[in-house]
Design a protein that fits this description.
CATH class of the largest domain: Mainly Alpha
Distance between the termini: 122 Å
Order of helices and strands: HHHHHH
Number of strands: 0
Number of helices: 6
Structural class: mainly alpha
Helix content: 55-70%
Strand content: under 5%
CATH architecture of the largest domain: Orthogonal Bundle
Length: 155
């Protein structure tokens, strides 16, 4: 067996699409998955519960998915297919889950529209009320002014 065929034979068991599992790629995937240990809310990478029932299993599966995948996204999809979208830290930006991305901005725009309409209504009503007030009688104004002046002189 010559050298070339030896190296080719040595490489055959290694899948061509596999990528090396680095700490950086493991962290990237682990930070995008939610631990399934009963609602802790931590990511798989960051779960630090003592005796966590699922973190170690998920961490091993993330490393296996990375070893079998060509990139981090593919490994993330492998985990999402296995556990469903509930494991993803952020909902996918497609289908019904798209509403989770759109609703905060839509609610903000609707709120701004309502505030604008209410403020314009108040402004219009205030302007209408200001224009309908009766003018002050000059004789009455002079009488009040004289009373104020008298009170000031007493003090």
């Amino acid at each position: 067996m010559n050298r070339r065929s030896f190296f080719a034979a040595a490489l055959l068991p290694i899948p061509l699409a596999a990528m090396p599992v680095t700490e950086q790629s493991y962290r990237w995937v682990g930070e995008r998955l939610i631990c399934q240990c009963g609602g802790c809310g931590y990511t798989v990478y960051g779960c630090n519960h003592y005796g966590c029932s699922s973190a170690e299993t998920l961490r091993r599966e993330v490393r296996e998915a990375l070893a079998a995948s060509s990139n981090e996204e593919e490994a993330l999809q492998v985990m999402a297919v296995k556990y469903g979208p509930k494991i993803l830290a952020e909902p996918p930006k497609s289908g019904f889950n798209l509403t989770a991305w759109i609703m905060p901005f839509a609610a903000l725009l609707v709120g701004l529209f309502i505030v604008t309409v209410v403020l314009k209504g108040w402004k219009r009503r205030h302007a209408a009320e200001a224009g309908t007030t009766a003018p002050v009688d000059p004789a009455l104004l002079a009488r009040y002014q004289a009373g104020i002046d008298a009170e000031i002189e007493k003090s």
